[in-house]
Specification:
With about 90 residues, the chain is α+β, with helices and mostly antiparallel strands. It has one domain (about 5-85): Glutaredoxin. About 35% of the residues lie in helices and about 25% in strands. It contains 3 helices and 4 strands; from the N terminus they run βααβββα. It binds FE2/S2 (inorganic) cluster.
């Protein structure tokens, strides 16, 4: 099965906002929700919406204003449903 990429912006603005704090928690959330067989987490160059906080992308959908503090909430409310609509996980 081909894994769908879930992109986490590693550009300089997102870096300054703490993307390296987000990364380990994001990896843990993916494990907790058993997404590792269907989704692969990839670092991305700047997603070109730098004024919107740390940004992620899945297919054509962007998830913005992510921070280490709100990642869990955004993951469950926005990212997980987006992934679940395209894969049977
Ligand atoms: S650095 Fe992340 S969107 Fe530009």
């Amino acid at each position: 099965m081909t894994k769908e990429p879930l992109f986490l912006c590693m550009g300089s603005a997102c870096h300054q906002l703490g993307v390296y704090e987000v990364l380990p928690r994001l990896q843990a959330l993916m494990r907790e929700h058993q997404l590792e067989d269907s989704v692969t987490l990839k670092g991305s160059f700047c997603l070109e919406i730098c004024s919107n906080g740390i940004t992620m992308k899945f297919r054509d959908q962007h998830f913005m204003n992510i921070s280490p503090q709100n990642l869990d909430e955004i993951f469950v409310r926005e990212i997980l449903p987006a992934i679940q609509t395209v894969c049977s996980c």
